[in-house]
Amino acid sequence: MKSYKRLWIAFGLVIGISFAVLGTVGHHLISHAPPVPARVVTPDGAVVFTGTDIVDGQGVWQSIGGQEIGTIWGHGAYVAPDWTADWLHRESIFTLDNWAQQMGSASYSALSDEQQGALQARLRDAMRRNTYDAAAGTITISPLRAEAFSKLEQYYAGIFAKGRDAYAIPAGALTDTAKQRKMAAFFWWTAWAATTDRPGESTTYTNNWPHESLVGNEPTPGAIVWSIISFVLLLAAVGGMVWYFASKEPAPVYEAPPASDPLLGLHPTPSQKATIKYFYVAALMVLLQIACGIITAHYGVEGSALYGIPLAKWLPYSISRTWHLQLAIFWIATSWLATGLYVAPAVSGFEPKGQRLGVNLLFGALVVVVGGSLAGEWLGIEQKLGNLWFWFGSQGYEYVDLGRFWQILLFAGLTFWLWLMWRALRPALSTPSESRPLLALFLLSSIAIPLFYASGLMYGQRSNLVTAEYWRWWVVHLWVEGFFEVFATVVIAFLFTRLRLLRTDIATSSVLFSTIIFLSGGIIGTFHHLYFAGTGPAVIALGALFSALEVVPLVLIGFEAWENIRLGRERNKAMWIAAYKWPIRFFVAVAFWNFIGAGLFGFLINPPVALYYLQGLNTTPVHGHTALFGVYGMLGLGLMLFCLRALHPGRAWKDRPLAIAFWCINTGLSLMVLLSMLPVGLLQGWASVQYGTWYARSSEFLQTPLMNHLRWMRVPGDTIFALGMFAFCWFLLGLLTGHSYDDSASVQEGSWELVEAGSPGRIGAD
């Protein structure tokens, strides 16, 4: 039996060292977060507002949608402004205009260049000087800044009370005057942190983000230098990886694939049959997600209506976008978890007693969590839950919007899923075999799924924004993008080994090696999300270097695509493999979008100097759509088809709807990015470099005829994409009604067998 000792040692070192760095640096950045003062006062001691107002205001912002209605520090939605950049610019202009009027000028813009330069220098000195007194717990501001706060408080109160279509904010979004003032205090604090130098340093708490020339916010030297180093490191690592792969022999397949299908020969167990409903619920969630996506994208044009229908009265942008993101995570996770429940007894060859009951109970819990959290998010954002918004409504943080109660229930469900996986895998793990190392990695990746989702429970309702952002990105980057991908990679390896198209030793070595390479950059690479989230310069250095390493394995993702194509072409030797054509093609699409979405579009925004100008612009959803759906969504669809193929043995498919679905989904995704989101994002990037972040996110820029035209250009891609998903769901429906089966043809069966626990059954010989 082949030994994988060196690979396991490398795997352990990568995990241990990476999390030691992530935890140590995380502790430092949380302990050095921008301080929330006890009071903000003027020089004569008059209190402008308190620290309690700031923290309460953060809660108000979260309760009305938070990161689903504009952005803070560049994180969130893309129609309304970045409130940090917008407040900072408006406060700066208010101050400059006031000083200009004292000089006898109508406004700052009416001054000569020399006079403007003098006032800008004065403004930079006033805004960047840190007046926080830790002993007294106070921040002292000038009477003019206090006056600016009062004016801007009224301005933002008007936006949220009266609504503004350009920001997709409906009338009545927030009418409580006390809450309006507290939210203004929170906006002020985020802008203060973004323009105030850390003690003893010449950079702000947010590493000089956002770009604002009026106060001297420009990229730090570290952002520029580490970006250059990351480019060099990427080129060196890619060269080394190409050299390594060029020296390796291609992974061999079996000389003679089985004459009949080993996987289709099984008789599905009760628990495997019980997973079918998961896939159909996932399909329903896909359709609902698409509907929410169409509505959300359209609000960027009409603001509060859908082709004239005042839909925002019942479903405002903040809710439609919340549902769009949450449903994406729910349906993708559902398809992957259901695949795990199907594969676990398949790879062990045993069906534990009571497994079907467990699968059904978990399904019921899934329905409760999904339905309850979506309803709670609507009630919370509509301000109908009072002080219970955090627990049962929306937490207001992107991707982890669901209320804490539903979050805890989901964690409990994932833990129960892990227990179901363990009891199904235990017999195989206790028996020495060639597959045991791969099974061990399968179990470890399964453990990581509830474990890393639990990181979303590490911050509270009143935690500092830096603390919440740090742990939130553990969920988004490590749970969604990290260990779920490892889990899926292992599942695919098992499927190919059980089809006897790939040798177990080759699959084990490949999965371990690719996991090591991916996680060596991916874990510490989490920091690239936190460059400007109130963190220090160390985050820029680590994030730049390790996020570059994340791209390295994706550059060679074509090898994975070619391997899948090659396995599919083995049908020339065994015609039954043709039955797996469409699952394999979806796996090829995963490889393609992994390179394009996670690789190219990911690295477009990952270097610090690039993200400095692009943070919070439409280049981010370009990466988000092509990576989240292009990679994880496509993988979910492929796994869904693989399991449904095995759960309906012996019957051929009418796969024309799948052909339509595959090409429409991929074409539509390409068009929505290339015709709309990418051009909008690049034009915003140009505006950000030339004028500042505030302008790139302003309605003055985003509501120009050109930008509106580009947003309308999403319609062709969105329509084709939606047609593809409808065709996919129509095919799935046909598996229930029978219209997706071709009874004039048949799929050859093999002799692969599953048995109940305690019986001496076997899996086909390797």
User: What proportion of the residues is helical, as a percent range?
Assistant: 55-70%
Please state the structural category: mainly alpha
Q: Number of helical runs?
A: 26
Instruction: Report on the biggest sheet.
Output: 4 strands, mixed
Mean pLDDT: 89
Given the C-alpha coordinates, what overall shape results?
globular
* N-to-C span: 13 Å
Low-confidence runs of at least 5 consecutive residues: 748-766
Tally the beta strands.
10
Strand order of the largest sheet: 2-1-6-5
Rg on CA atoms, Å? 27 Å
In terms of DSSP E residues, the strand content is under 5%
Give a short overview.
By secondary structure, the protein is mainly alpha-helical. 65% of the residues lie in helices and 4% in strands.
